[in-house]
UniProtKB/TrEMBL annotation:
Residues given in the record as ATP binding sites: R316, D338
An example Gene Ontology molecular-function term: metal ion binding
InterPro entries associated with the record: Folylpolyglutamate_synth (IPR001645), Folylpolyglutamate_synth_CS (IPR018109), Folylpolyglutamate_synth_euk (IPR023600), Mur-like_cat_sf (IPR036565), Mur_ligase_C_dom_sf (IPR036615)
Function (record text): Catalyzes conversion of folates to polyglutamate derivatives allowing concentration of folate compounds in the cell and the intracellular retention of these cofactors, which are important substrates for most of the folate-dependent enzymes that are involved in one-carbon transfer reactions involved in purine, pyrimidine and amino acid synthesis.
Top-rank lineage group of the source organism: Eukaryota
Catalysed conversion reaction: (6S)-5,6,7,8-tetrahydrofolyl-(gamma-L-Glu)(n) + L-glutamate + ATP = (6S)-5,6,7,8-tetrahydrofolyl-(gamma-L-Glu)(n+1) + ADP + phosphate + H(+)
Signal peptide: none
Keyword Acyltransferase among record annotations: no
Recorded GO CC terms: cytosol; mitochondrion
Protein name: Folylpolyglutamate synthase
């Protein structure tokens, strides 16, 4: 809280912060308010990162690290989760750095498959923060938020002496803070698509060029099947740097010995194939194994199978029953969360949701459910409803959606609606909400709801939705002015309602509306797809898992 804010009436008594909250305040001070789409972000004094590494005395430790570096538009987080899980199950001490976090910033730093503990996080955080503070000058100012987190990851992994560090690129590749790595063991490029075009370029070729910025001379690299335009650029960049680039084949499900992947969705077989290639190459290049598993794809070692079956990643194809409604036994409210935010991932998300609500998510023979092992409770959160019991209930589908204003909802929403419709799924209502967390704060204090929140973006989403649904229903779409229903229910205070949608002033109000809807219809089941933004997914998880 700034001194200015502290002087305003309601905040006169400054609450005592816990040591962790103090760290979150300090971290929040590094967030720049400008838009990521600001053109001056390009490179943004990239050379400063090398000054920061010197300040933290990390030059030698980073050179010695056995790193796997992964970029991509879609699937890079899943690929990293599979890769970490495989190598951990092979007996290695693993470090995994990913972004964004959903509930707690410590999720970004995982040691042996677990979020870093608070005690260690605070020790490393202040060691780095204080060093930067002491040495900050006009020429070398404090690092920005993401750069600080990436540098902190290097500090954590060096101090914890991990056997392997798996790094997920934050944005792009060439100018990403993780790209200070000069000699990774192997690099991976997950599926490419249209996202962050305001920074990375408008064509797949331009986007591929940015991602290929992680290639290092002579270091082998793998990618997944990509559109021709992207492949040409990747191959060109690879040949310039003498990089042996191979396309990793999607995993054949038959090699999993009847088990399922720990992450849901058919697209995960593509990510799993890439992870296997990265792990196999890492094992060979670090002298740990003689066998080339890439040529042996008819058989996978047990550790690889176990790693793939127990991998977990919050906010991707995750099913979570609402704990409050469950405790009241007053009905069924189940959230289906997926942080999809590109047009292609909307298709994948819609397909997963459409199959999941029909009961296909109950994976009796998955490794996770057989062995009770899934640290994050992600894809296999226990929705303990048998097919027989489920079939007795009528189900209603809702969409809970928000996306950042740099995304194009005219591309995202039609893809989602049409893909769901092709599986016979239609939303009774779409609910649009602002995110709870504000982008310039980290931690619990980031969840304060501003009563004067600007809903103009959510109203734009609502207008697009109404046009879309009326068009799908074949109604006259010319008259698209908002026709608001009379709002009488107190729980809907401030909600702006149209025929097929509602805009709520905050997420808690929307969740309460859903809970009341379920309480009023005990025989039914409400299935809510939460998508469009990982920030939104994190906010929902924070509220419904309480």
């Amino acid at each position: 809280m700034s001194q200015g804010e502290a002087g305003e009436g309601k905040d006169e008594i400054k609450p005592t912060l816990s040591p962790y909250e103090e760290a979150m305040e300090a971290l929040s001070s590094l967030i720049t308010k400008r838009s990521r789409a600001d053109k001056s972000n390009k490179g943004d004094k990239y050379e400063l990162l090398f000054d920061y590494i010197k300040i933290l005395e990390l030059e030698e430790p980073i050179k010695k690290m056995k790193i796997i570096h992964v970029a991509g538009t879609k699937g890079k987080g899943s690929t990293c989760a599979f890769t970490e899980s495989i190598l951990r199950n092979c007996g290695f001490h693993t470090g995994l750095f990913t972004s964004p976090h959903l509930i707690d910033v410590r999720e970004r730093f995982r040691l042996d498959g677990m979020d870093i503990c608070e005690e260690k996080f605070l020790a490393y955080f202040w060691w780095c923060f204080d060093r930067f503070k002491e040495r900050a000058t006009d020429e070398v100012p404090m690092p920005t938020y993401f750069r600080f987190l990436a540098l902190l990851a290097f500090k954590v992994f060096a101090a914890e002496q991990v056997d392997v560090a798996i790094l997920e690129v934050g944005l792009g590749g060439k100018y990403d803070a993780t790209n200070v790595v000069e000699n990774p063991v192997v690099c991976g490029i997950a599926s490419l698509g249209y996202d962050h075009m305001e920074i990375l370029g408008n064509t797949l070729g331009q986007i591929a060029g940015e991602k290929a910025g992680i290639f290092k001379r002579g270091v082998p690299a793998f990618t997944v099947p990509q559109p021709d335009e992207a492949v040409l650029v990747l191959e060109e960049k690879a040949s310039e740097l003498d990089v042996h680039l191979e396309v990793a084949a999607p995993l054949d499900a038959s090699v999993l010995s009847g088990l399922h992947l720990g992450l849901e969705g058919e697209h995960q077989y593509i990510n799993a194939g890439l992870a296997i290639a990265l792990c196999s190459t890492w094992l060979q290049r670090t002298g740990h194994v003689e066998i080339n598993y890439l040529e042996e794809m008819t058989h996978l070692p047990e550790q690889f199978v176990k790693g793939l079956a127990t991998a977990a990643l919050q906010g991707r194809a995750q099913i979570v029953p609402d704990q409050l409604i469950e405790s009241e036994s007053s009905g069924d409210l189940v959230f289906y969360l997926d942080g999809a935010h590109s047009p292609e991932s909307m298709d994948v998300c819609a397909k997963w949701f459409s199959l999941a609500i029909k009961g296909d998510y109950k994976q009796h023979n998955s490794y996770a459910s057989n062995h009770g092992h899934n640290e994050l409770g992600s894809s296999h959160d226990s929705v303990e409803i048998s097919h027989h019991e489920a079939s007795k209930k009528s189900s209603t589908q809702f969409l809970l959606f928000n996306c950042m204003s740099v995304r194009d909802p005219e591309l995202l929403l039609p893809r989602l609606v049409r893909a769901c419709a092709s599986h016979g799924v239609h939303f009774q209502k779409a609910l649009f909400v602002p995110n709870v967390s504000v982008y310039y704060k980290v931690g619990t204090s980031a969840s304060t709801v501003d009563t004067q929140v600007d809903l103009s973006w959510q109203l734009t989403l609502q207008r697009i939705w109404e046009n879309l649904v009326r068009g799908e229903k074949g109604n006259d779409v010319k008259n698209t002015d908002h026709t608001y229903e009379e709002v009488t229910d107190d729980s809907e205070k401030g909600a702006q309602s149209c025929e097929n949608s509602k805009v709520f002033p905050s997420l808690p109000v929307a969740i309460n509306w859903l809970r009341d809807t379920v309480r009023n219809n005990r025989s039914g089941r409400s299935q809510v797809l939460v998508t469009g933004s990982l920030h939104l997914v994190g906010d929902v998880l924070r509220l419904v898992k309480k």
